[in-house]
Amino acid sequence: xxxxxxxxxxxxxASSYAITIGGGVLGDVGSWSIRAxxxxxxxxxxxxxxxxxxxxxxxxxxxLKKSGFETHIHLIGDGERFKNLRTLETTLRTLSxxxxxxxxxxxxxxxxxxxxxxxxxxxxxxxxIGLLQIPTTLLSMIDSSVGGKxxxxxxxxxxxxxxxxxxxxxxxxxxxxxxxxKRELTxxxxxxxxxxxxxxxxxxxxxxxxxxxxxxxDLRNAxxxxxxxxxxxxxxRDQISxxxxxxxxxxxxxxxxxSARSRKILNFGHTFAHALEKATxxxxxxxxxxxxxxxxxxxxxxxxxxxxxxxxxxxxxxVVRCAGILPAIDNVDxxxxxxxxxxxxxxxxNSLHWVLLRGIGKPIIVPDTEIPQSAVSSTLKTIFxx
Length: 386
Ligand code: NAD
Ligand code: GLY
Hints:
Shape: globular
Order of helices and strands: EHEHEHEHEHEEEHHHHHHHEEEH
Number of strands: 11
Largest sheet: 6 strands, parallel
Bound molecules: nicotinamide-adenine-dinucleotide, glycine
Number of helices: 13
Strand order of the largest sheet: 1-8-5-4-2-3
Strand content: 15-25%
Helix content: 40-55%
């Protein structure tokens, strides 16, 4: 051995943080932030969009100030198309102009778009500053705010630039869902069905039962909200627990891990979903709606490969329908979808890893080299005929 070559092992320290869930907890965000960040944190940049800030910004800002934080506000455009490098640049410029240091923090107030963008900004400014996630959509509560995936879209595809960066804390005020439009609830429930489908019967059944009682309703109806708030909180808690368990075992989605409990399984339905979002220029479908179609596509492909039985396919499709109406996709160019699979993040070397199902709660990762192209193309036709 060359005596000049020295090998030192640096152990990876998994970061832990608390996720606080409840009704009306937003008013205590100041003291919660001190607990999450520690007393040294001085300034907080609240990143949000106009719509969400108008709804909850004043409460958050007042509570932070009351707890002694100096607050600044940075609003970004509303929608998936603003989750890009240009918005990241303006955000990083704001952090530098305001002189944010490593003891300062970002607070993401909004849905997954705000959370992913703000998280990426927090991970890159000075190589990492504090991050608080306050998700205000169902999707961001059960999925995007937990697990530390941050990033932005590029002209080549979804989430192609990003980092793994865990927040210092996640605060979920379920009452913020009282203003969420119905379409956004449908989108969130599609991600909940995805997690149920890969997790196992108990979470799948709980999600399906909630959707049956909910009947694609609207939480903006106060009576409906009061009736279902406890069950909804319990469902959100179980959904997060499932995701947290997967993330804990495979925080940075190791390339080598292709087991049924690897983080990759959380991408169930996402290969088709990301292709659909890109083909519709991130303007037509909500991410969760695209995931709804993605679940149906991955399930149909699983059936085509004789991995799953028809009863389970029907059950999954029924539960997706229960989440609400998905916008029609008949105008989408199918060749663009096939082309997008080539740029998918889930590619490893030359092959794309599909997450498929051998049944509910039985995800399996299959490289596309093991899937005949004809099976993918004919499944695509079936989905577009629906
Ligand atoms: P979104 O952030 O676009 O929010 C949806 C809409 O709801 C927006 O118009 C927003 O302004 C509005 N809104 C937010 N909270 C509201 C409230 N309480 N009342 C009324 N309106 C409200 O969409 P989303 O579905 O939350 O997130 C989708 C994004 O999350 C996508 O970019 C997706 O890629 C990402 N995502 C990331 C992860 C991850 O692990 N990081 C996981 C899943 C999804
Ligand atoms: N939403 C997929 C993941 O967090 O891994």
